[in-house]
Amino acid sequence: MNPFFSFIIPCCNVEPYVRECLASITDQSFQNWECLIGIEPSSDKTEETILEITSGDERFRVFYGPLTGSCSASRNTGIDMARGEYIIFLDGDDTIAEGCLERLHEKICANPGADLYPCVIIAYNESTGDKEFRDNYRDDTTKEMTGVEATLYLNRRFRGGICPMLQLTVHRRGFLVEHDLKCIVGLRHQDAEFSPRALYLAKRVAPLHEPFYLYRIRPNSVQTKAKGAAYFMKDWAIITKSLLAFYDRVSREDGFDTRVVPCWIRQWFSEKRMNFLWFLPERVKEIPREKRVEWLKFIFEDGFEAYNRMMKYGSRPQRMAAFHVRMFVRCPALRWYAELFFRLYFRFTEKYSSRPADKLYISIPPQNGSAGQNS
To answer: What is the value of pTM for the model shown?
Structure first.
């Protein structure tokens, strides 16, 4: 009999945390699960600790891969290996809440077969002790929606700025396999590329409002050690190019719902991503022009056809911005002019952009204890 849940846990240099991580699974009252652990070469005793903990327990399966700098490769391998009906992505330095699997099992069985079950993350700052309660869906959200409806909902609520973390959602394994949904190996912002695709393709999205994932924010992680404005520019270029190709494909399919296009423009290009990362005045000062040109050329190396089709659904300011993006890439002599336009563009949109979106994080007073404790 296959397990109900499959955990997929990438592990690299997490020796101080992985014992607590795995204990949060084995200590659950609900025990119908398997755990797939992907180990990449580490400078500490991550591998030895994991093998010690999992020895003799057939519910754990350990596999190995080369050092990639992100969770993507282990997650992809784990999806292929998984036998459970539902997949939970867990990082080796995080934990799950006490008793949460039993509650998740009950809620999923009450409404089985959805492709995505968004839940709640409690983010724990290891340095300050602060905790934040992160739920992308209001408690009064309708019981179930389509992926398109969920995309529209998140766009309205967060003004295009939200991209659900993979760990936030319990995924139906059959859905991931059917659509061959995988992460791009090496990316450190996998969620920004994976989640919009998964959300659009989902036929059924059922928010559970269950606080099950305890997410550790620590000073020595890949994300928090990042330095400089250009650190993630390559990643964002790869993400943007991939999403543009995804739009190009699905927009040609019968039944494509064009209502999602303004949401994607907002999220991928306009307010929160490409325009800001490449043309915000601070970025222009910090990142050399040739570096910004290099990665924009990478994004549009196959041409602007899909981008142009997409921007037909944009607002007038968004279409003007797109015109100057094309100018920046195509016309070296006018790149200064495109940068000048964006300086004025951001001034014009500053008042609009500074309007607060719906609150995503609800602070929880610091408590004694570790991130692995139930909140």
So the answer is: 0.89
